[in-house]
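haha ok so turns out i had the wrong file open the whole time. this is the CORRECT one, sorry everyone. sequence first:
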Amino acid sequence: MAVERRSLTGRIEQLGSPADVTRAKLRIGGAVVISLLVLIGAVLIGIAIFAWLTYPSANEITASLPDKKGLREAIQDDRVAWFNQIKDLLQLLVVSLLVPALTTILGYIFGKEQAEG
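then structure:
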């Protein structure tokens, strides 16, 4: 027996009227957008937890210095390096990866809706 496999698009197109097909596609697109927003939120929460756990304290920096000279500069340098690390992580994961995917899908949904409507 041959098993017939139909794609999601094929199943949607069996719905009947073009309005039903459009609504089904928008529902699927909405689910993808919501999933991406949840993923972005989870990544932001994860980065916030990572940032909180890795924030350099003055005690850690003081313990790593052989003498107390330049303590203020060492604390400032470590915190600037920490901030740059968190900023780069946010830029890599959210700005460069997830936001373009979200805007691409939103542009497709609204462009398709406008072209059909």
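The first helix runs from residue 8 to 13.
again sry for the mixup
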